[in-house]
Structure formats: structure tokens, C-alpha cells
Amino acid sequence: MKVHSVMTRPANRVPGFRAATLVAAAVVLVAGCATAGPGATPSDPPASEPAPGVSPSPAPQTVAPPGGTIRLYSTVTQATVDAIVEGYQAVNPNVTIDLFRAPTGEVAARIAAELREGGVRADLFWLTDPLSIQQYDQDGLLAAYAPPEAASLDPADQGATFWATRHLNMVMVGAADLSPAVTDWGDLTDPALKDAVALPDPGFAGSAFGLLGAFAQDPAYGLEFYQRLKDNGAIIVKSPDEVTTGVAEGRFKAGITLDFSVRSAIAKGSPVRLIWPTSGAVTMYSPIAMLQASDNAAAAKSFIDFVLSGDGQAIIAASGWEPARADVAGGPPIDGSQVRPDWTAAFREQADLLAGYRAIFGE
Amino acid sequence: MGVAGRDRSAGSGRVPGRALGMLVTSAAFAALVAYPLARLTGTLGDLGPEAITRALAGAGGRAVLTSIGLGVVVAVLVVVIGTTTALIGERASSRGRWLVRAGMVGPLFVPPFVAALGWAAAYGPRGLTDRWLGISLPGTYGLPGVITVLTVEAVPLAYLIVAAALAGRAEPDLERAARASGATSLDALRTVTLPLLRRPILGSGVLAFIMTLNAFGVPAVLGIPGGVSTITTRLYQDLAFSADPASFDRAVVLALILVAIAFVTVTASDRLLGGHSSPRTAVTSSGPATPGRRSTVAVAAVMVGVIATAAVPFVALILVALTRAVGLPPTPENWTLANFAEVLDPRILGALARSVGLALAAATIVTVLGGIVVAVGRRAGRVLGGVASIGFAVPGSTLALAVLIGYGGALRDTLLIILIVYLGKFWALGHRPIAGSVDRLPNDLLRAARASGARPRDVFRSIVLPLLRPAIIGAWLIVFLFGLHEVTMSSLLYGPGTDTLAVVTLNVQQLGDPTITAALAVALGLVVGVGAIPVLLVRRAIDRPPGRE
Amino acid sequence: MMAGPTPVVDARGLTIAHTRTPVVHEFDLSVGPAETVALLGPSGSGKSSLLAAVAGFVRPIAGELRIGGRLVDGPGVAVPPEDRSVGVVFQNDALWPHLNVLETVIYPIRRRGIGRANAEREAREVLERLGIAHLASRRPAQLSGGEQQRTGLARALARDAVVYLLDEPTAHLDTALKATWQQELADQVRRLGAAVIFATHDVAEALSIADRVAIVRDGRRIQFGTPLEVYERPVDAWSARLTGAASVVSATTDGVLAAGGPAQVVVRPDWAGLDGDLPGRVIAAWFRGSHTDVELDTPFGSVVIRTLGAPTVAVGDVVTWHLRQSWPLRPTPGPIGTMNQYYG
């Protein structure tokens, strides 16, 4: 019955099918065999100008401009990395940057996995805490270099193989209508804040890891401080941003987070306020380093130079972070004193730190 | 090449075609599923028994128990709710039936973890109901929330299975015969309808169990913040967040335990339920067996449930996406499009393009693979179907880890490795509708073509393919949709520049900004929703047996 | 229309609709005790819906229905199927796959309130009566078509109802089985002395089994009478053609054949014969074994005449014929179906 109408319909499905399959397969194979996608595409915010009063940085190498591809593993805030990459590529258009940006835990896992499989494939690490970078240094992954701008950095903010790019201040955040008033770290163990304090997870966020080291080192707090927080019902969330969000939503009343996070939330309108601890914010630096195994050392070095340059530091300041170089203005306000722990000493004890933390809060 | 002997094969009776088809399929299966699984098992062998016991101690063992417990609870809930809803929907008036069916179809196209985000936005702490009514569902971030959303996701499938049985095995006339023999409505349900539904009901329970076992997005979004880990999320955390080699070992052990549980469940249920009754999800029209005013109330109750579990969460998600900042109420004065503007960032658009590209490629290749069944004849086609199903039955987390171990050396961080795991997993999805359609192809149509002078290849091209077209299109669309919102496997296999939109959303969610997360989730939901419209249109065409109107 | 005892089934003005459009309009039907009524009409005419309404599967949107003198459907009244004294035999048997034959027949007996032991005894008796006692422990999948039908009938009879409904009881049987099963049905049911309503599109079945025939068209009752009445005195051309071979020819209003006449009469093949004073030319002659049907072209229209034995005329012959009997027709409301003459 239906055969007639079916046979008069043009049977043109198969040729189209085959062609489409071949094309799709070809496209995918080509795309797949290329090592990853194009990576970070620069976003739109305009490159910032150096703030007045800063001497323009010396131009990089006078030899042939760097080219090729460099792979950057970073835990830095997405917007900041994107701005830096865009700024860098404006000056070095021949360099392609493959970016993997993820929280510290994830980047650490990736690095560990690659080591397991035969070698890390990155050229650069740009991380958020001073402890994990020392571990990689100790493992022999990092390459020595002497960037010309290192002279403008605080000697405590660098090693032979890594250099600070910005400072992170761990402060407290509280609900806009918080009472009782919280002014210093110890107030977080106040019974009035029972079950209402949030802390970031050292296993997930590098800044939390750094914080752990700082408290452990300080005789006024030590690991017992974490125990007291736990006894007061403090809750571990993943990231500093989550602490800020939780306080904004009203899930918690107060918590420890990064100043950047609180300022961003306040700027958008969240009902929170920044509490700068009276004994000083815990300040850590965000290091950048180059890998020994990098096969594009020239480009990697030029990237490091850019980040440490006046232009690069200005971009960092414009994106809301305190630049590592003191001679670059434009960063966020510092509302109090800053405590800079001895990171080398903290690193020596880091295994004990993590074990101690896990003993308190579980896995 | 007598006609009698070759009659069974749909079109191509030529031996070379069949052999080539079998060869291609076997090679594909070996590459996509068998080799990775073999490598995974081999890795387990390398670990040794103490590593295994260590993996099962503490968090690992807890994850296994959580997964199994979750699976059982969800299965029971899904069976009860799904069967009840099917009985209400399929025996209601035609308008009620249409409403219930439409309500059931919706959740099928919402990516599970978008549903989870919506649920939290609607009923969680600081969610919609919390702001406006002062109540929130306890445990949204935790086991109760995970159970609820997984149940909501699985009920539509149970509905389809039971509804098909209500039209087939337990058709309305049987219930009428019982009523005409003196049975009250309840009596007929108990003595006639339910006994006949026993197999499909149990089958849908098993399906819900397996779905829960494999679930990742929902436990990731609602479970992890509440400290609840399933095998899938524990595996993910071990691979993605931990640098400790012991975590990798644990991931391997968990992956194989997962597939072992799935295998045991499926075999046991096959044995108990007696062979694979592949449920025809085609629901032919059935009517109310007998009139009843109660059905209107019941249908209304079902629709309220659908709105509460599907519509409200999506609205809540949109409201959160529109909110200027966290902590502000989602009222119009706080609305902004800035969060959506961030979604239009080139990085995220790139992820969207990759999602679409991967889904396109997977759908096309899978459809071709599934179409090979047509060329190899019915008996061989059934074997191929079984082979393809293995890939689907292996849990996504396990398959992803296996592919990572098998191909990670050469293909790590490429789009190709993600495509490979998609192909392995979705092959059966493309195969089933096409094979089912081929089965229903009446032989007489093909004989008529041969008797009109068409050679086998011609018959294939001019008769078989056009008649199979709805099934082919349907298969393509289903795989495309699944590929778009897949997150379980791509979250384990992505690398710099190869993240998909779903993975981006998951990562942003873990960073803790609910407004951007909501905007991304809404975007993902819309993309999938737009892709779902053609599926709905084609569904009617698929359900009709080819050649008959 | 019917004097005498109270009808077992009394339907007045039944209107039934499944969706918006009614499929049965203001249907009246009365069935006396021990009476067999056929609902005769083409498929889609609404007869199955009528049966469904009597059984209680569908609620009429208007009208009243009484079974055994008791109002079961009416304003504010809707008695469910299990509370009506109705037995139903379904078109496709509708046997329960999970119950064997004995359990299937016990099912309605138990629900009459009878205890287990007695129910089993009674069920076996019913099975004996239908000759399927030896199949008691078989499931439907293990029965032949005929055995399944008997089981379906046994289940209905086990209801011990005042009226039995049969929906197209022989529709799916081939001719050989049709006659025997029709007879069996009629015997079994009559033995109980109960009323029967059956729906069919098979004319021979309706005329042979029923005490009265209701002709159903598009949900309306066109005619209701004994088989002889509907055969010999059809109410319009459509009904005439439904109930047997019929030639419709033009006539005067007094019933005299007249070419181009204003009125019409129906002529059954056995109401006319060859040789007479009416003119005609042979168009076709069908030999049917025991008789021959000869189709003539006449000035009044084409006429089919049944003659005994082998054909005595050939195509093209000019012949004469005579008319013994005819019946005047009312004009058929609405378009006549495409059925032309057909031969039963």
C-alpha cells in the first residue's frame, strides 16, 4: 500500500549521511590531535595603564621576541589571569598561552597525575600559596632564573626558583548586622557564634593552606585554634568565596576569607562587611615559577618578567589584588597591619600541619 | 542466493557487507570499551590486596555503602511514585493523560545537575521558599536532597515503562473484564492490573537503582557540600582534587567496585525477571477502563507534583541568576543581566562550542555505528545490540577512568579522549531505537520491493532507510542531547581548553558563587531545552511502526 | 412499543460521548427477559459504545438506563460495573494472562459472595457445560483460539447475570467456525433464560440469532424490529442495503414501478423472477452453486433477480421479468454509503 509513495520519495539521505559523518570525524580527529584547544582567549576588559608615579618597566629581551606556546597552570582568580594573559599577548603576540586554571586542589592533582605518567607538561606554575610551591621546588621541578624585576621585590617574597606576584590578605568576613562585634581571630570561637562560622578548606584552596601554616606557627594560636574552632561548630567549606557567599546568604554569621572576595561581594551589593583582624591579616604571596622541563624557556621567562614588570603589576592592582611590588600603586586599601609568617619554616612542618588538620576536621 | 534463505535479512543479503559490519563493530567495541576496561582491571591487579583493603577503609567504604543505600531508597521511591503516577495518568481521561504525559516528559530533558541546582535554589537554605515562606526542606544539601532530586529524575523513566505495560500486557480490557466480573476498582487493581505489572515495575526499580549508582551531577552538587560522598563523587574527588597516590589507587578500586555492583544487579534482575523484556517506550493510546471522578483529582495532584519538582526549581534558578549579589533577595530591584553577560564571555562560549561539537560528533558517529545493525541482519544485529549495551551499562565514572588509563598517555587533555568515552557510553542509545525500528519493519514491504525489481542494495537505500528515518533521527537527537549535558565523564577527562559547558558550570559551582553558577546552569538548561524540541516532534514518528500510518 | 413484562434492559435517550463529540445520540432500547437483541451497524456506528454504557464502562452524558428494573445510570446515579447484573464477553476475549482457566471462572463467582469450595464446584460445572473442564489448569497462552473463546464465555456465564453483552462475538473467526460458534453461543445463553445484547456488523448473524434487531447508524437507532421486519420492511435505502442484497428502483408514490418516478421501492432478489411483463437487459449473471443471481438493467434502475440452479440467460440478453413483492422506502436522511448491491 505504502510502497509506491515511499519509492517515489527521493532517496538522498545516505549520501548526505556519509558525507556528514566523514566531515564530523575528520573535524574531531584534527581537533583532538592538536594538543588541547586554543586555551585562554583574552577577555574584554581593557589593559590598564600604569598608575602615575611608577617608573615604566624596562622592556624585555633585546634578542629575538619569544614565540611558540607556553602552558600555564594557575590557581589565580580567572579574571586576573585573563587580564595578565591579554596584557602579555599585546606585547608578545607571537606567543600562544594554553591555560589551565583551577582551584589549588585540582591543579595539584593534575600535576601529581602528570608526574605519575612521566612528567609535568606545564611550562609555568602560578599559584596562590607559598607552601605548595616550595614542595615543587624541593621535588626539583622548578628552574632557577634571575628575573630583572626581582630586585623590586621583598627578599622574603622570593626564592631562587619562584617569585611573589601579589599578596593575599586573609581577613574575616561578617554579616552586615553582625553582633557581637568581631574584631580579631579569637572572637570566632565566641559561643555566640556557635555553628555559625565558616572556614575554607586547606585541601581545596591554597590560601587556606597558607593560613593553616600561619596559625600553626603563631604561638598565640597554633593548631589548637583550629580545635577550638571545631569545638565551636565551625564548618569547613571549599573556597574563600564560598565562605563569603555563605555569610552573605545568612548561612553563617562570620568566617575567614580573602579580602578580595569580600570587597567584590560588597561592590555588588551583598550585605557583608570586611573585618580586618586587629592582630593583623595573614598575608601570603602568590608565587610564579618556571619548570625545569619546559621546552620554551625563553617564552616562559618573558612571561615571568611581564608579570613582575610595572605593567603587569599594574594590571594585577587594577584587578583588585595587592601587587607584590611596593613601588606599584593602585592596589586595594590595606585596612590594618599585616602578618607575614615564615613560610620556609612553615613548609618544613607542612606534613604535620596537614595531618594535624585532618585529625581535627577529618578528611 | 535464494530469496527464501535470505528473507530474514533486511535488505542486504550480501556476505561482504555483513562481515564488514561485524568487523567495524567489533573493532569499535574493542577500542571503546574492552581495551580500556582491560587496562583498568590490569591496574587493579598491580595494586595488590593491601591497597584494596586500604581503599575500602574509611571514606571509600562509606562511599560504597552510601551508593548502595541511596540506590535502594531511590529505587523504592521511584517504583511507588512511578507506578502510581502511571496508573493515574494512563487511566485518566484523554486530556488528563496528555497533561500527565507532558509533565513526565519534561524532566527527561533537564540535565540532572541543573535540576539539583534548581532544587537547592528553590527549597534549600536561603532558597525561594526560605525567603518567602520561611521554610526550607531540611537536608537539601545532604542525603534527603540527593534522594529527592534523583527520584524526580528517575520517575519519568519508570512512568514510561509502566505506561507501556498498561497499554500492552495490562491493557484496559483486562481491567474491564474484572469489573464486569464483579471486582471493585481497587479489587481489580490488586488482582489483575498489579500482578500483570509486576515485571515492568521491578524492571523500573532496577533501572532506578542503576541510574542512582551511576549518578554524579546530583550527588556532586547536593551531596558534597553536605559531606555525603557516593562512589562516583568520591572517585571524582580522588582524581581531581587529590595529589596523594593513595587516592588514585582508591579511585581505581572504587571504579571497579561500581561496575561490579552494576553487573551483579543487572544479571540478578535478568535472572529474576526472566530474560530481557526490552521495554517498548512507545505508549499507544489507552483509555480509562472505567469512568471515575477520582481521576480528575488524582491528575491534579500529579500536576501539582510536577510543577513543584520541575517548574519551581527552574524559576528559582532563573531568579538567582538575575540577582545582583549574593544575599540580596531576588526581587525586581535587585535584578541584573550582568551574570548572564558573564556567560557570554569568550571562554565560556568556547566551552559551549566544544559541548555542541562533541555532541554533534558523538551523535553522528553513534548513529552510523547503530545503523550498521541494519546491514548485518537481524540475528547478528541482536548480538551487536548486546555488545553495545555493555558500554552503556558500565558506569560513566568507571568508563572514564578506564579510558584515561588506556588512552591517557597519548590523548590526555584532548577533545578526542572525551569523544571516545562518549562513543563508548552512548553507542547503545543510538543502537536501540534503530534496531527496534528494524525489528518492526514488515518483511512484506521488502519483498514487494524485490518483487518490483530492486536489488538488495537498492532496497536498502530506497525502502529501508527512508522508513527508518524517524528512528535514525531520533537516535541522533537523543545522543546529541545526552552529549550536551554530560558531566560525569567529561569532568574526569577534561584539560586545558577542553572543558565543556557542563564542566565549566560544575567548576564554577564549586567555587561558590551561586549567581554566576545559576546563570550558567540556566544557559545550559536552555541549550539542552532547545535541543529537546526536535526530539519531542520526532517521538511520534518513532513510535509508529515503520510502514504503517 | 413493548407491552408485557418489565424489560431487563431499559435505555431511554442515552447519549454517549468519549470526547467532545457524542458517538451515540438519544438511543432508546428495551430488551425483555430471555430476549436476544442484536445491534447491527457498520464499524464506528457506536454499538460498542452502547454495550460499554450498559456494562458501566462509560457514563452516558444524558439519558437513563435501567437494568433489571433498577436505575443504574441517570441524574445523580452511576452504578459501577461490578454492581450491575451484567456479564460481558469481550471481542478479543480479554483473558487474564496470570490466571488459569479455573481461576478465571472462579473470579466472578467469588465476587458474588460465594465461598471458596462452592465457588470451585460451580466453576467446574460451568467448564463442564462448555466442554473445557479438561483445560482447568491451563493458562490462556496455552489455549487455542476456540478454547480461549469458551473460557471468556464461561467467565461471563459464571456471573449469573440478567443480561449478557457480547461485542462482535464472531468478528475474527473464519466462516467455517462462525456458524458453529454462533449456534453454541445462542444455545448456552438461552439455556440460562437470560437476556442477550450483542453488537455485530454481520447481517446473517444478526438475522439468524436475534429476536429483535436494532439498526444503528452514526449513533442513532434507525430501526428496531424483528429480523423479518427489518428484512422485509426496511425503513430506508441505507437500512435496506445493510440488511441484505437490495435493489433500489424508482416508482410512483403508490409503489408502482415507474421510470424516473418520484419515489423509491426496494426489491430483494427473491421478490422478483424472470419472465413477465417488465422489460430488462442482462448485465451480469453470477452462478452461486444453488442459485444464480442475474443483474438486469431496467428502465427503473438495475435489479438483481435470484433464480434457482444454473444460469438460463447470458450477458446481453434482452429479457422480461416480473415483480412479486416490493417495499416502499422513506428517503434516507444524509448521504447513502458507497455500498451498492452486494451479495450475502
Task: Give the overall form of chain A.
Answer: globular
Question: What is the distance, rounded to the nearest whole angstrom, between the alpha carbons of the first and last residues of chain C?
Answer: 30 Å
Strand % of chain A is 15-25%
C-alpha-based Rg of chain A, rounded:
24 Å
Structural class of chain A: alpha/beta
| Count of beta strands of chain C | 18
CATH architecture of the largest domain in chain A: 3-Layer(aba) Sandwich
CATH superfamily of the largest domain in chain A: Periplasmic binding protein-like II
Overall mean pLDDT of chain A stands at 81
Mind summarizing the main beta sheet of chain C? 6 strands, mixed
Strand content of chain C: 25-35%
Count of separate DSSP helical elements of chain C: 8
- Separation of the first and last Cα atoms of chain A: 69 Å
Q: State mean pLDDT of chain C (0 to 100 scale).
A: 88
The count of β-strands of chain A is 11
* Helix/strand order of chain C, N-terminal first: EEEHEEEEHHHEHEHEEHHEEEEEEE
What does this structure look like?
The complex is a heterotrimer of chains A (363), B (549) and C (344). Chain A is an alpha/beta fold and 363 residues long. In chain A, 40% of the residues lie in helices and 17% in strands. Chain A has 13 helices and 11 strands. In chain A, helix 7 packs parallel to helix 13. The radius of gyration of chain A is 24 Å and the shape is globular. The N terminus of chain A is likely disordered. With 549 residues, chain B is mainly alpha-helical. Chain B has 2 domains: 259 residues, MetI-like (MetI-like fold); 201 residues, MetI-like fold. In chain B, helix 2 packs across helix 13, helix 4 runs parallel beside helix 8 and helix 8 packs antiparallel against helix 11. The longest helix of chain B has 33 residues. A 6-stranded mixed β-sheet of chain C has the order 7-8-9-3-10-11, sandwiched between helices. Chain C is globular and about 75 Å long. The chains are: A alpha/beta (363), B mainly alpha (549), C alpha+beta (344). At the A-B interface, helix 1, helix 2, strand 2, helix 4 and helix 8 of A face helix 12, helix 13, helix 16, helix 18 and helix 19 of B.
